[in-house]
Design brief:
transmembrane helix; transmembrane; 7 helices
Length: about 220
């Protein structure tokens, strides 16, 4: 049992990890064909994972509705929205009909999904503004520089700010294209090195949390 639950998954992860790490550096037709086949299998497995995730989601919210826990009405809305959208998608077969007219599924996407996404991002803007207000207080020289740069960028990205301070547009572009780009590259390099290190830990069995039992 320990072989099936622990050793076999670790062996599969190690073999496939090393195999496809080497595949990237082998420009051979057989190597490319193997990658194409495995990519198709990943899509199939992803479909099964999607079904598993939806089943788990429905089970959790069904329990909330049955017990009438706090917020169970939102679970009912979730059920209605998901089932209604799936039904309309199967019935409409896409967002546009053959003649280019908007279908019922397209109407749901354009007039319900898109406004809801806009609402979520607008709510997120308030949290970002609140966090920026707390973070950008000039308590030190570094914070003062950050506050000044943030004000310049915000003024240069809106027409009113560029109208009031014409030079703010050029300064904003310089900050974004020069200073911000260098910092972004450093962050991406750090993230890439972290991803490589985590990949090696998974391949060689050091990181085992994906097995569901921590590192034991």
């Amino acid at each position: 049992m320990n072989l099936l639950r622990r050793q076999l998954p670790l062996m599969v992860a190690m073999v496939t990890g090393l195999l496809f790490a080497g595949q990237y550096y082998v420009p051979h037709p057989a190597s490319e064909e193997m990658l194409t086949s495995v990519t198709k299998w990943m899509q199939i497995i992803g479909g099964f994972a999607l079904v598993l995730g939806i089943t788990s989601l429905f089970t959790v919210h069904a329990a909330k509705i049955r017990r009438k826990e706090a917020g169970w009405g939102y679970s009912v809305i979730l059920y209605a929205g998901m089932l209604g959208t799936v039904a309309m998608g199967l019935w409409s077969e896409g967002k546009e009909a053959v003649d280019g007219a908007t279908t019922a599924f397209g109407w749901v996407y354009s007039y319900m999904m898109v406004p809801l996404q806009g609402t979520m991002f607008s709510l997120l803007a308030f949290f970002i503004a609140s966090a920026a207000y707390r973070s950008f207080r000039a308590r030190s020289r570094e914070a003062a520089v950050l506050l000044t740069a943030a004000v310049i960028v915000m003024m240069g990205r809106v027409p009113l700010g560029e109208y009031l301070i014409p030079v703010s547009g050029d300064l904003s572009q310089w900050i974004l294209n020069v200073l911000n780009a260098s910092v972004r590259r450093a962050i991406l390099i750090g993230v890439s090195l972290g991803a490589v290190a985590l990949s090696f830990k998974i391949i060689f069995g050091i990181e085992r949390s994906y097995l569901g039992g921590g590192k034991e």
